Amino acid sequence: MTAERYVFPHKHLLGIEPLSPQDITALLDQARAFEEVCERPSIKIVPALRKKLVVNLFFENSTRTRNSFEIAEKRLSAEIINFDADTSSLNKGETLIDTAMNLEAMHPDLIVMRHSAPGAHALLARHMKASIVNAGDGAHEHPTQALLDAYTLRKHFGKLEGLRVAIVGDIRNSRVVRSNLWLLTRMGAKVTLVGPPTLVPQEMKATWPSIDISHDFDAVIPKQDAIMMLRAQFERGTGAYIPGQGEYSRFFQLNPARMQRAKKDVVVLHPGPINRGLEITSEVADGPRNLILDQVTNGVPVRMAVLYLLSHPHGEQVP
Amino acid sequence: MPEAQGPCPMDPGQMDAALKRLAADLMARLRSEEEVVLLGIRSRGLPLAERLAILLRAATGAQVPVGSLDITLYRDDLTEMVGSPIVRPTEIPFTLKERTVVLVDDVLYTGRTVRAALDALLDHGRPHRVMLLVLADRSGRELPIQADLAGLRVEIPPGHRVAVKLKEIDGEDSVTVEAC
């Protein structure tokens, strides 16, 4: 047998920004191996994280991301503690650092955290020995979502380089879009951000000079290989940036009429949950070109790959 | 079966002869009603399993299914290793139920790889029986595991290793004993 070794040079996955193309490729390649585990007809569990303790620390509501991580952890045979912020001592005034110190006393190996404050993960990483996985921090990054999006696209098209991807909708409030911009541009995809001027900050061009920005969805559609729709996040104040939902839908909804303008082999992605009838219609969300449920399916092997690569002692570590 | 000594226990011709002998010995061990499949342990077990399948087909006319098994995630030292061993997909595109599975590997040494392979195998299904076929069976067992069929059995001192090269991976066929 061969025990060819790859040293993932990061202790934490705080975002896509610190990852090199080689790191991203390694994560996606490992996910392919874990997909085989998930597709087995019999036992879908491997002992790779046996004896490792994973704490799921969710300070924000999440169903699919939390479930996806938990399934991934169980498929790797990890010990799991689910920390529910609603019933924690945080409600009694405990700080995040206090929570971290208490968790540290349990000697976890990995902590999967979702938090509304950008940078909360970096703070935790400075105070704990465990590897930290960012499961979403405010409007900053959601790295595993970007990785599963990339995995889904690479699986469908066989590559990321050269793909034309439009990311459409509530760009301003999306952590998914930031992670995807780091990942897709770094891997050679051509990204166009589409949305009303109020929801697409022009300054994003300064961070990602290769992207295009457009406010004309109909003009952009025919050139795209993939259209990634974003959820309009009214809970984050999106309503204040648009005249109304009707007008938003009129110009930026992906519907059958707009799909007629797209390439016949275009694919549609959405990180979920979907506002049906607002940013996307049910005909498209459930239609033959959608990869939305593939994204959910692919989330598990991608998260298995992340947990696996972070769970080994590293050589020289970089954050 | 030759007891190997010296630095070069198998040249390409000897490897070819050993594989033919292994295929013949395997056929002799199988009952007529047994449905056999070959599972090569990645990485060098796979091309060996594929070569054996060709030899079995030439001898019997029967197509023997070949799959591959990656045991990385089942290693008993996985959580202690620095860096992550690369995991490659296991490919078993057939049922194992009621089949006779022949695990194929290049070298049997401590037995830990075979233990991991048995764990991995049983997660994919419950075969009728499992046999172990290796090209080279060397001394140094750490677990009570033995090969049913071996192309070569070799006693070598500690601090040495049996290095198998295969055309499919290394561009040449050879088995050598090297100091490590």
UniProtKB/TrEMBL annotation, chain A:
| Binding, L-aspartate | 92, 175, 231
State whether keyword Membrane applies.
no
The UniProt family comment states:
Belongs to the aspartate/ornithine carbamoyltransferase superfamily. ATCase family.
Record-linked NCBIfam families: asp_carb_tr, PRK00856.1
Read off the SUPFAM superfamilies from this record. Aspartate/ornithine carbamoyltransferase
Q: Which domain of life is it from?
A: Bacteria
Source organism (scientific name): Geothrix oryzae
State what protein this is by name.
Aspartate carbamoyltransferase
Q: Which residues form the Aspartate/ornithine carbamoyltransferase Asp/Orn-binding domain?
A: 161-310
Q: Which Pfam families match?
A: OTCace, OTCace_N
Against PROSITE patterns, the record matches this protein to: CARBAMOYLTRANSFERASE
Tell me, what does this protein do in biology? Answer: Catalyzes the condensation of carbamoyl phosphate and aspartate to form carbamoyl aspartate and inorganic phosphate, the committed step in the de novo pyrimidine nucleotide biosynthesis pathway.
Q: What is its EC number?
A: 2.1.3.2
Q: Which InterPro entries match?
A: Asp/Orn_carbamoyltranf_P-bd (IPR006132), Asp/Orn_carbamoylTrfase (IPR006130), Asp/Orn_carbamoylTrfase_sf (IPR036901), Asp_carbamoyltransf (IPR002082), Asp_carbamoyltransf_Asp/Orn-bd (IPR006131)
Q: Which gene encodes it?
A: pyrB
Catalysed reaction(s) here are:
carbamoyl phosphate + L-aspartate = N-carbamoyl-L-aspartate + phosphate + H(+)
Which HAMAP family does UniProt cross-reference here?
A: Asp_carb_tr
Automatic annotation (TrEMBL), chain B:
Q: What is its EC number?
A: 2.4.2.9
- Which keywords does the record carry? Glycosyltransferase, Transcription, Transcription regulation, Transferase
Record bears the keyword Lipid metabolism: no
Q: Which InterPro entries match?
A: PRTase-like, PRTase_dom, PyrR, PyrR_bifunctional
Q: Which Pfam families match?
A: Pribosyltran (PF00156)
The record lists the catalysed reaction(s) as: UMP + diphosphate = 5-phospho-alpha-D-ribose 1-diphosphate + uracil
Residue intervals of the Phosphoribosyltransferase domain: 18-148
SUPFAM superfamilies in alphabetical order: PRTase-like
Motif position, PRPP-binding: 101-113
Q: Report the PANTHER family cross-referenced here.
A: BIFUNCTIONAL PROTEIN PYRR
Its family remark reads: Belongs to the purine/pyrimidine phosphoribosyltransferase family. PyrR subfamily.
Q: What is this protein called?
A: Bifunctional protein PyrR
Specify the species: Geothrix oryzae
